Amino acid sequence: MKQGWRWFGTQDPISLKEIRQAGVTDVVAALYERKCGEVWPIEEIRARQEAVRAAGMEWSVIESVPVHESVKTRTGDFQTYIENYKQTLRNLAACGIKVVCYNFMPILDWTRSQLDYALPDGSSVLNFDEVAVAAFDLHILKRPGAEKDYDDALRAKAKAWFEAADPALIEKTSKGILLGLPGTVDDLTVEGFRDLLKTYEGIDDATLRANLYAFLNELAPLCEELGVRMAIHPDDPPRSLFGLPRILSDADDIREMCAKVPSENMGLTLCTGSLGGGRANDEVAIFREFARRVHFVHFRNVVYADGGTFHESGCHLCGKVDMPRLMRILLDEEARRGEQIVVRPDHGRLMEIDKGRTCYSGYSYGGRLVGLAELRGLEYGLIHGSDLDGKVIVVTGAAGVLCSVMTEDFLRHGAKVALLDLHGEKAEAFAAALAAKGLTETLPLGANVLDRASLEAARDAVLAKWGRVDILVNGAGGNHPKGTCAAEQMTPDAKLEETFFGLDIEGFEFVNRLNFIGTLLPSQVFAKEMLATGGSIVNISSMAATQPLTKVAAYAAAKASIENFTRWLATHLAPMGIRVNAIAPGFFITNQNRFLMLEQDGKTLTPRGHKVIAKTPMRKFGQPSDLCGAVRYLVSDDASFVTGIVIPIDGGFLAYSGV
């Protein structure tokens, strides 16, 4: 992750020097002096950018370019404000800042009822007390019609709270709820808030959603042209408040936005604390489903009391939100993209170190300093605490579409990987691409999996560099047109040369040798180095081994041989502590099958592609990254009693009968 920190500019009591000393690499900021709806001038952007660079960091994310209320309601001069917004995006892109966090929440862009909730250690955090918020709405704001938004029990509790509260508590709670952050809204009064609520009369969830989608679809062509990624912040908290519409509170809301706004440039800020403000939300499932649309991350945690009352956690790693699993998803998504994502610790505790500062609530120095350290430690532990840390892995066909992703995953988990490919220059180019991502523990080698001498030379090079072999992944293989029948079935009018009877025997033999012998020979050469210490072999089968596919007779037969060989070799080598397993991928788009599955546009399914999707319960092709978890498991200590198995990774293809 890129270690981020929100800085409120020259009015921030925390200096850039202090931020840099916290280990921050990427600053999250805005032109807070500019009023909502104004164009941000390039010269002001560059001046702030240079100030950040002078402190040794980069200004990487905008948080935020506020969306004018007229745009949200699509009233008044909303089109002028949209044009101003576009110009600001152009100016930001010209300065190289291309991730923009924003929100579409009406009037208030966050709500807490208490800014100094005391923890047992004496530090304080933000608190959302649903009783206090209801009391404010019903008895202080006195919003017309508010009664219908609360059940009898909550109304009774709110009344009791208000009757017991003294004027100081009422004022403190009101100020907490109406607090605005710099660059968002000014701190509001009760009267001013009541007036602003009138501007949303007649605007329900559906209307506000439609306005959001119209805004984003208008921005999308420009953002795609500029390379700008918009990252909308979820509702905070994700529940209806003060009669205002809520439109980005859970997975269904995000799913609808992605469907209505198809451009991937229009994405999400994954704020785990905001999403965590909804008891029913599964933050891990949300991140996993929408990872491709996540352009910016706020990691924080919450702890629930009764009902819907919660406070920010005293530790970013502990609470409702499963932070280790979220960090794992982040690392996997970064590996898939080949780039890191900016993460900032959000809503830190107010600690003794902050006494004497005028810190914005949740934006203290000490609390965020500790939070960032916790997240940094979690990331380091997940990367370097892996079973694969320091292991030497040999991957044949390492530069291929599927194996290249698995190889990168191994490296990100601390392994050293020998990259074997038939063409040495291809292996070297792949190693260079990995090195550009900071993954340097590689050894690119040209090797022919059908030539023992070639494999032995590669083995000697691996031993000379690292001294051992722990894991072998037999990734080399594939199909060939000469091992394929043109006709799916033999029919009375079929041309013999297009059926089984026209199958080229040399092509058939080549596919079988490439896959089966190309698995057997590397296993002989490299597994010999595991005899003294034990190790693991993973072979690559296919769902075609179990359920033969039409046309690909040679390929299906070869993969069936691999599955049988996997079980045989697992039995044979078990006394030596060498485990042998296999994965059976389903339909993944590779260079070999791309135009069997997709038309020339790369998107439209071919007739065969339609058949495949219809037979796949998950209704999609696999992504190479879908293989990584299963392979990592098979070679890990967690699978120490697992050998001789084949794991299908096929979206349910083999499980589905078609009816």
Q: Name the helicity range.
A: 40-55%
Low-confidence stretches at least 5 residues in length (pLDDT < 50)? none
Count of discrete alpha- or pi-helical segments spanning 4 or more residues: 22
Give the N-to-C terminal Cα separation.
Answer: 45 Å
Please name the defining characteristics of this protein.
659 residues; alpha/beta; eight-stranded parallel β-barrel; seven-stranded parallel sheet; 22 helices; 19 strands; 41% helix; 14% strand
What does this structure look like?
Helix 10 (251-260) links the parallel strand 7 (229-232) and strand 8. The mean pLDDT is 91. The longest helix has 23 residues, at 505-527. The protein has an 8-stranded parallel barrel. The chain has a 7-stranded parallel β-sheet with strand order 15-14-13-16-17-18-19, with helices on both faces. It is built from 22 helices and 19 strands. The chain is α/β, with parallel strands linked by helices and 659 residues long.
Task: Give a short summary of the structure.
The protein is an alpha/beta fold and 659 residues long. The protein has 22 helices and 19 strands. The longest helix has 23 residues, at 505-527.
Give the helices and strands, then pairings.
Blueprint: E1 2-6, H1 16-21, E2 26-29, H2 42-54, E3 58-63, H3 69-73, H4 78-94, E4 99-102, E5 114-118, E6 124-128, H5 130-140, H6 152-164, H7 167-177, H8 190-197, H9 205-226, E7 229-232, H10 251-260, E8 266-271, H11 272-276, H12 283-290, E9 294-299, E10 302-304, E11 310-312, H13 323-337, E12 342-345, H14 365-384, E13 392-396, H15 401-412, E14 416-421, H16 424-435, E15 442-446, H17 452-466, E16 471-474, H18 505-527, E17 535-540, H19 553-573, E18 578-585, H20 594-597, H21 607-615, H22 628-634, E19 646-649
Parallel strand pairs: 1-2, 1-12, 2-3, 3-4, 4-7, 7-8, 8-9, 9-12, 13-14, 13-16, 14-15, 16-17, 17-18, 18-19
Antiparallel strand pairs: 5-6, 6-11, 10-11
Helix pairs in contact: 4-9, 5-6, 5-7, 12-13, 13-14, 13-15, 17-18, 18-19
